[in-house]
Amino acid sequence: VHERDESKEPASLKRCFFFLDKTSRSFSAVIKELHPELLVPVCLFYLVLRGLDTIEDDMTLPLEKKEPILRNFQDILEQDGWTCNENGPNEKDRQLLVEFNVVVEEFKKIKPAYRTIIKDITKRMGNGMADYANNAEHNTNGVNTIADYELYCHYVAGLVGEGLTRLFVEGGLANAALLKRPELMESMGQFLQQVNIIRDIKEDLDDKRRFWPKQIWSKYVNNFEDLFKPENKQLALSASSEMILTALSRADDCLYYLAGIKEQSVFNFCAIPQSMAIATLEICFQNHDIFKKNVKITKGEACQLMIESTQNLQLVCDVFKKYLRKIHQKNNPHDPNFLRISMACGKTEQFIESIFPSQ
Ligand code: PS7
Ligand code: MN
Ligand code: MN
Ligand code: MN
Ligand code: MN
Ligand code: MN
Predict the structure, then answer these.
(1) pTM score of the predicted model
(2) Which of 20, 53, 194, 250 to mutate to test the pocket of ligand 1 (most atoms within 8 A of CB)?
(3) Three-class secondary structure of residue 224 per DSSP
(4) Phi-psi region of 174 (alpha: psi -120 to 50; beta: other; left: phi over 0)
(5) What is the pLDDT of residues 302-315, one digit of tens each?
(6) CA distances from 169 to 4, 59, 165, 222 (A)
(7) Atom of ligand 1 nearest to the CA of 270
(8) How far is the CA of 191 from the centre of ligand 1 (A)?
(9) Closest ligand 1 atom to 56 CA
């Protein structure tokens, strides 16, 4: 384990690490353990996207202010001294944007190849977010088809998978062959984002945002709001099980991607969020609380997952197997998605068995 020499860090870099701690629960720990070659670039990549997301999430920002910031964020990255005071007082990460000049300052200093990757992803993500911010404004149904939903998840998370993979390869810490399987890095992001969207349904509703696709929920209820009515409990659970099934179909790609990561610090960085995601998916499954509050895995469970996901692929597969079996056991024969969920669990377990035969 290496350590940063904080005495040699400029104040702006110290401030970036301060914001990393302040703005991320799970990512801060794994980013700080990354190989020194990528530690600062990935930290800055994170802060850039966190800044962008703070603009996206602020529902008090009028669209005419929000849209140009989202669409031009890649240029903002290179504007000396840029800061933003537009966010509402309750936006949890507003201070990062108030002091965004420290990110701009450090961004200048990283290798041009890393800057190019971060700028490219920022540009595509910001424009994608803006497209969907528009949608929410003009179309009260928000995300309609499953294709809309997966495109949104592509913009906010699949692209992160692409950017990180390009950084790993550029830094000499991952095999360039990974770039030839774009569906694997896409699934790494999709899995995390879909789980976030499933878990956050109530929080997002309270912000007047909807990310569950109408194509799915309309099979069960007529209006999105009906998902939250106590009398529709079973229908809401069925809709959630279809959302969970959709996410679950990405799990095998994620394990396949992890099999291609040999460098230990990059492996840990990639594996921990995926393990947290499958555990979160399992507590959301057949759990009506997601329609009432933000459901979270316990601190103890999170610690356990951290330990199990920082060894090797076999242990990560064991984690996945454990949660797949829990999902399998909770599966309800009266649920219209029962059979498909059962098959998805079985298929993923078989995939794991094919990499690590149990006897
Ligand atoms: C490892 C190949 C650059 C490390 C990590 C900030 C979390 C915030 O939290 O609903 O409910 O408010 O607004 C693939 C991370 C995908 C992304 C997306 C893994 C950047 C991240 C900005 C690919 C993380 C998925 C918005 C956009 O959802 O969230 C490998 C590093 C990864 C950030 C995440 C988040 C999107 C998001 P919340 P939202
Ligand atoms: Mn967010
Ligand atoms: Mn967001
Ligand atoms: Mn949010
Ligand atoms: Mn969310
Ligand atoms: Mn959230």
Answers:
(1) 0.96
(2) 53
(3) helix
(4) beta
(5) 999 999 999 899 99
(6) 23, 37, 6, 47
(7) 1
(8) 11
(9) 13
Q: How far apart are CA 53 and CA 260, in angstroms?
A: 29
Amino acid at 349: E
Cβ proximity of 220 and 237 under 8 Å: no
Q: Please list, in sequence order, all residues whose beta carbon lies within 8 angstroms of the beta carbon of residue 149, skipping any fewer than 6 positions away.
A: 143, 197, 211, 212, 213, 215, 216
- What sign results for the dihedral spanned by CA atoms 247, 253, 259, 260? negative
Does 188 contact ligand 1 (Cβ within 6 A)? yes
Measured in angstroms, how far is the CA atom of residue 165 from the centroid of ligand 1? 14
CA nearest to 273, candidates 164, 355, 155, 177: 164
pLDDT in tens, 321-331: 999 999 999 99
pLDDT digits (tens, 9 = 90+) for 23-58: 998 899 999 999 999 999 999 999 999 999 999 999
CA distance 212 to 240: 9
> In whole angstroms, what is the distance from residue 76 CA to residue 308 CA?
39
Mean pLDDT (the chain) is: 95
Residue 188, CA distances (Å) to 45, 84, 182, 285, 309 in order:
17, 31, 10, 20, 15
Radius of gyration of the chain, Cα coordinates, nearest whole angstrom: 20
- Which among 167, 155, 140, 185 is positioned nearest to 70, based on CA atoms? 155
Residue nearest to atom 29 of ligand 1 (CA): 196
Crossing angle between the packed helical segments 182-199 and 264-284, to the nearest 10 degrees: 40
Q: Which ligand is nearest to the CA of 173?
A: 1
Give dist(CA 303, CA 276) in Å, integer.
10
- Residue 135: per-residue pLDDT: 61
Q: Are 226 and 212 in contact (CB under 8 A)?
A: no
Q: Which positions are annotated as active-site residues?
A: 152, 199, 209, 269
For residue 145, the CA-to-ligand 1 centroid distance in Å is 22
